[in-house]
Predict the 3D structure of the following.
Amino acid sequence: MIRWGLLALLLLALTGLWVVIAIGYRDLPAQVPTHFNFAGTPDRWGSKSELLVLAGVGSGMALAISTLSWWIGRLAVSRPGWINMPDNSWRTFPAELRAWVMAPMCLSLQCLGLVLAGVFSFIYVGSVAVARGSAATLASWPMICLVVVCLGIVLVGLLNSTRRIRLAKQTGLG
């Protein structure tokens, strides 16, 4: 199940990232930070083209994870045995109920794709700021917050899907 609004928001965010790249790429210094330690200090420098790889990988991951939500929704109906959950009794539910059970997990995957786009955008913008000398380090607290948000999104999706399994069994639907 794809939530088209979230997909549109993801595509808008990725388009914004690539517009920022297109506008400012020529003005970047030849060497840019390509890796940061936990404190946010650059510990590896490379050519500015490596930032394109970073943005490409980030965009690809965000789109792949968001697309995975559609695939998981389809698998829940057609091949539930391919999806593993803590309580796999949901696999015997009718197809419509299986889709309902997996809907929170699908939504979580779409949200995760959107947050990952934010993570990679933050890293790109921070790398550019350090390369241009307007910042000495990449702030580490936003990265920590984004990682916690990613874990929270997955956990909420898993817990809500598990709650739906339990609810379906309690009401006799499953």
